User: Fold this.
Amino acid sequence: MNIVVERLNKIKSNISNSNVNVVAVSKTFPFETIKPLIDQGHLHFGENKVQEAEAKWSEHQKTKKKINLHMVGGLQSNKAKKAVELFDYIHSLDNKRLADMLSKHENKINKKLKYFIQVNIGNETQKSGVTENDLNDFYKYCTKEINLNIIGLMAIPPNDVDVEKHFKFLYDKNVSLGLKELSMGMSADYQKALKFKSTFLRIGSSIFGERN
Ligand SMILES: *Cc1c(COP(=O)(O)O)cnc(C)c1O
Assistant:
């Protein structure tokens, strides 16, 4: 069997909860590497750059069965138009300007995406994400003022400390906002994320191998 398919199947076999989705993060890998997963019926794929995603996926999106394409990386508001056209999910919603642009382009082409608000847990200065303090207001703005379909929270926790503490924090926040989905857990820590009821695992290198 194809090695990439084998690795994904192995990961899936460790997940007993059928509400959990594996987003295969295929950034840097060419379509040929990804294709066996599609042929096998996998539906969720993640990219972190609009341009790369467009080059890789736009032809496929038109012709083949419905893939769910996830934007997991930082998104600049000047790329919002392309992002709305291309993606089904955005995991990195983290500022008003971006939110406004996404909403505007959704309305223009009459398409609704699903969004995770990215939270900067640990308030790390170098990381993107809404701060804990701003989260409630930002959530209200996105849902009430500009009508974005926010389905959950997302975070990339600091990796130098107790990850489970951060997963618990995000889980609790998600519950307090009444959100159903939760985007946390990557190759190194997805088992821990599952303990805190993550529903979208973003897994790259454990499926595709190390990136250059
Ligand atoms: C690349 C990336 C992942 C996947 O990381 P791995 O450690 O390779 O599983 C997950 N989330 C985001 C936001 C990423 O950029």
About this structure: The two ends are 24 Å apart (CA to CA). The pocket of pyridoxal-5'-phosphate is lined by residues 25, 27, 48, 72-73, 156, 186-188, 202-206 (CB under 6 Å).
